[in-house]
């Protein structure tokens, strides 16, 4: 990507602020979020020391976003897609790589995604990388294999949505050990057997 500001027809479409020495907070009041034609944004290798502003979602034309080593604290990651819209579902080949540096993450929503790792592998990835996870939403995901018991290590979980995932496996006895669970959504998930 070219560095600096790139304009097309008088509109900013690319902004590269990587390694710009920015030290401070980025919040929802930033004029950055008024750049409605922005397609590419690189904020890598700065120190923002804040959470990722929710208004990042206002940049609806954005197709490239680089926040590597930018000092952001990520607490919610929502990469859900609508499985009813052909070609919109996210394919996640390696969930371990996606979550490995997100130890502060509290909400993970991957509804409608294709997670290529088997259930037991992604359960292990979540339990070893996301100790503070409170919300896990994987409704209508395609994930091969059976649900892993290592998910029970996520003792902060209060919401689990596995509806429509076609698990086709026995109900894990570990579900009885989630002491903070307030919502468990499992319609059409294919779990079999007696619920603990």
TrEMBL record:
Gene3D superfamilies: Ribonuclease Inhibitor. One of its GO terms (cellular component) is membrane. It comes from the Eukaryota. The keyword Transmembrane applies. It is a single-pass type I membrane protein. InterPro entries: Leu-rich_rpt, LRR_dom_sf, RLP23-like. It is found in: Membrane. The keyword Signal applies. Keywords: Glycoprotein, Membrane, Receptor, Signal, Transmembrane, Transmembrane helix. It holds the Pfam family LRR_8. This is Uncharacterized protein. It comes from Ficus carica (Common fig).
